[in-house]
Write the structure tokens for this entry.
Amino acid sequence: MSSIREMAVRARQAARSLGQASAKQKNAALLAMADSLVAGTDDLIAANNRDIEAARERGMTDSMLDRLTLTPQRVADIAEGLRQIVQLPDPVGETLDGWTRPNGLQIQRVRVPLGVIGIIYESRPNVTADAAGLCLKSGNACLLRGGSEALHSNAFIADRLSKAAESEGLPADSIQLIATADREAARELMRMNGLVDVLIPRGGAGLIRSVIENATVPVIETGTGNCHIYVDGSADLDSALQIIVNAKCSRPSVCNAVETVLIHEVIAEDFLPIVGPRLSESGVEIRGCERTREIAVEMGLPVLIRPATEDDWHTEYSSLVLAIRIVDSLDDALTHIHTYGTRHSESIITEDYSSSRRFLNEVDAACVYVNASTRFSDGFEFGFGAEIGISNQKLHARGPMGLRELTTYKYVIRGDGQIRE
Amino acid sequence: MSSIREMAVRARQAARSLGQASAKQKNAALLAMADSLVAGTDDLIAANNRDIEAARERGMTDSMLDRLTLTPQRVADIAEGLRQIVQLPDPVGETLDGWTRPNGLQIQRVRVPLGVIGIIYESRPNVTADAAGLCLKSGNACLLRGGSEALHSNAFIADRLSKAAESEGLPADSIQLIATADREAARELMRMNGLVDVLIPRGGAGLIRSVIENATVPVIETGTGNCHIYVDGSADLDSALQIIVNAKCSRPSVCNAVETVLIHEVIAEDFLPIVGPRLSESGVEIRGCERTREIAVEMGLPVLIRPATEDDWHTEYSSLVLAIRIVDSLDDALTHIHTYGTRHSESIITEDYSSSRRFLNEVDAACVYVNASTRFSDGFEFGFGAEIGISNQKLHARGPMGLRELTTYKYVIRGDGQIRE
């Protein structure tokens, strides 16, 4: 048996017992995990330094190095994240619905853990603790496969967390790290049908594509957000301005940031002179459709003169770049979003009831907003607490995935001798 | 663009409008579909005869030929199935939950169609109509890929259904059949990420394995049921006997039939002399563990003398064969089920409260029963109405999948200018 398969078998065994653990036991383990990380701060930072040195030698960029780096404060934050999971309600055991059949069979649908969750992620070592904590609280064993550049940090964290869980009576194999840079190991993990119940990739588009391409285990696709804000003809332009600036500038690198703004033609000449300069002041590079550029020329708005191409409509910039397109109508906006959107988060700014109703009904996305920033698509902002990611697919979970989304259900059926006719 | 991609693009376009259709419109379409099939009975049977002749020439077995064959009565039954779907509540638009955030954002989770569903299935032409009807009622466009042996029958059915839907104002492309025997077409369908939202294979183990192996689109795995009944030490033996006979003999070919019976040792000598001859009378071939066979020798029960091997514990016989194993304890039974079960349907026969509680909690399966036949794992028996299949995986849907399981949700968020801090 390969070492990955052995780990998966042990994970499935651990999941069997972890799935029966009480919230009390799991919470005690989470607190022990947090304490153990804090107590190990110096050793963790030493392990992290080995990763940083190796990464620096390989010429890693400063922004990547920053993601990889742990400090005492960052370790304290990771521990605090684990403690916050303690406060969240345990999703396991909730009765989702129940009914009695004419023959007397009593059927209940009850929330249970998924079982074994594989997480494949990139450089940031905090994901090791976040993912392990969320999986543990939801009763799932996890197989963690982090980026090779964080191997020493991740190995230290996973080892600490596993031992802390064990100290509270939970199986040590509830938390396992696949501690090898070997790519074949990740591929093997992706094909552990029957042992691994779901894979959640967290990272860039390349990582996610590779998992979708290679996995035979079910995958929850996360991440890509080509989000739009449509400024309707009836919009409050002040509010539209605030929302667009917030959605683009508050954190441009994340998936719920806006990438394209669609503007109804009846307000284009009023709104462009407001929004263009304001975004430009915030450092945003704007790429406009032909009509936007015509207005820019007419009205003398040089910040709106750069052209958008077909590629721009498809692009998730993840940076301070924004595309603007003038549309004829709500229908036109809906078609643009249908054509180019990634079904993540879409917002309409409007004071018109019928436009709001149509937008909410007709846009096919995980999160559809009226008069609010797309940046709210987030587990904390929704009130779920920490999230394992934001799902971009329709199967199983959509949008921010918290503890509830790390569960499935089973039917519990109580009879008194029923047989089928 | 390949023809499969073109079909998928048209399906996605159709789904956009079908997803907005009212229950009234969809029900009218279902009734028109039923009427149209009945009106076309003679032509459908002529098309079916072409399939049957070709299949006979290729030497198809009688039981396969029977599955393929349509008669006027079978056509009427298919139409009746469509009419029954009219009676089921429309799942689309249900508010699953909703809350208001401290900042005033009002969040609702609303049930919506999945979008485009690909169904890959084998010989029985009734699946074409069943699947199309369930997809349409749940607001989903479908791409149907039936077995090549039923090509003429399926093409006729799909064409009638599509036209009938169109006559009621729904998009004709809501129902499309991939009418080619080319295997490459099925593979292409499995990789239509972004256009096809889910694939549901319906058929034998080979088909399902092939879809899991080749698909990059999310799949719902259906079908395999290695189901157990555990007769506890405290069981009512009469009831146990009725349930086992029902679960094995009422329809041995289906996935919710029982394959292995586990018997607590304290009742083995009482129960084996009852259950063995009774099953044998019903034509069941029994394969026993070593202890079963020892008792058979002691007590002179020749029907229990055939040995079970390790392979038997893994086997879904789908026929009148049953394995019997004597276990030391409930724990022993739980471990057997954990090791060999396919997480489909498992039942305990017991009068002991604590055994029932432990079995319900600890068995990891879609349907876990106390004192009832595993044969109830079925959409109709659960009260869902017609089912598209029985899910064998944990992601998205578990157990019988009715209309509700053909939906996802989206978050609808109403604000009044909220931006994220």
Chain A touches chain B through 68 residues (CB under 8 Å). The two ends of chain A are 45 Å apart (CA to CA). DSSP finds 16 helices and 15 strands in chain A.
